[in-house]
Amino acid sequence: MSFSDKLAAAQTRADSWLCIGLDPDPDKLPPALRGRPDGVAAFNRAIIDATRDLVCAYKPNLAFYLARGSAGIDALAQTAAAIPRDIPILLDAKFGDIDSSARGYARFAFDVLGADAVTVNPYLGADALAPFLEYENRAIFLLAHTSNPSACDLQESLVASALPEELP
Fold first, then answer.
1. Alpha carbon distance, N-terminus to C-terminus of the chain
2. Which of 6, 28, 59, 94 is catalytic?
3. Is 28 a catalytic residue?
4. pLDDT digits (tens, 9 = 90+) for 112-168
């Protein structure tokens, strides 16, 4: 089933466009879970169990898991496994790199983790997106404009469209 079909079915079933972010900040976990090796996964499972009939997708943010090292990757894998297969997983990673690296990111997201979609940064061009697009039933969300306070410093800047006549 394609990402679009899976998302549409989940939206219809839940009568909802709600996508829940799974961004486990260790400082914000309930105290009882903070010291447990499975604390992040248990926290996420509780969220998933409480919301599975209300959502059309879940969106784990890769940064929160990478910050925990291999334990974080394990927690991410456990989280992905806890999400019902009929609800899409959108991995928020903002991937963007050269072709060979992008291919590795795509394999991790789609083959290893089982994500249905990922966020990608198109700054490096079509080559950086191509490995993700090879997965026919998956989707990519292109980073276009971010919400962080200083985003406009670069994202709204006008840049000259041509090189000067002579470069130094």
1. 54
2. 94
3. no
4. 999 999 999 998 899 999 999 999 999 999 998 888 888 888 777 766 655 556 555
